[in-house]
């Protein structure tokens, strides 16, 4: 019962609107140009982490709050990772890794993402470096799965 109440509270927070999301401590930048992100990732030798999400998704908010936002708050975060968010059903414009013009929904579809949350760990050229994390898996073990996937992605990015 406590878990359900917590999830409902997270859902209410996530549904708080786009205006508040921009100033939210868990806000993750929306993907706009993966060619540019890839170039920056190659130069810094860092991975790209993509959260595929949906508005109002309490599990998406939990991943932002528990895993992604803390990474961004670490000193020197920009030198360790590029984190972007893709709205699975979104019509926002996006440039894919090959330079193709698409939308958030189109990009998600080409990656086989049909639900949220999904976290992809990518090389600077957009290749998967670990199996995507789909859903919250087992909450007790999610951090271990996340950390292992991030380490694998970081190792690939460091080797070029």
Q: How many domain regions? A: 1
Q: Could you tell me the number of beta strands? A: 6
Low-pLDDT runs of 5+ residues are: 1-23
Shape: globular
* Broad CATH class: Alpha Beta
Structural class: alpha+beta
The helicity comes to 40-55%
Question: What's the overall average pLDDT, rounded?
Answer: 84
CATH topology: Glutaredoxin
Cα-atom radius of gyration: 15 Å
Strand composition percent: 15-25%
Largest sheet: 4 strands, mixed
Structure, explained:
The structure is a single chain. The chain is α+β, with helices and mostly antiparallel strands and 160 residues long. The protein has a single domain (2-159), classed as 3-Layer(aba) Sandwich (Glutaredoxin), CATH 3.40.30. The chain contains six helices and six strands; from the N terminus they run H-H-H-E-H-E-E-E-H-E-E-H. It has helices at residues 2-14, 18-23, 34-44, 58-73, 104-110, 142-159, and strands at residues 48-53, 82-87, 93-95, 101-103, 118-122, 133-134. It has a four-stranded mixed beta sheet with strand order 2-1-5-6, with helices on both faces. Strands 3-4 form a two-stranded antiparallel ribbon. Strand 3 (93-95) and strand 4 (101-103) form a beta hairpin. The longest helix is centred in the last third of the chain and has 18 residues, at 142-159.
Question: What keyword list fits this structure?
Answer:
two-stranded antiparallel sheet, four-stranded mixed β-sheet, globular, 160 residues, Glutaredoxin, disordered N terminus, alpha+beta
Question: In short, what is this structure?
Answer:
Helices cover 44% and strands 16% of the residues. It contains six helices and six strands. The chain is globular, with a radius of gyration of 15 Å.
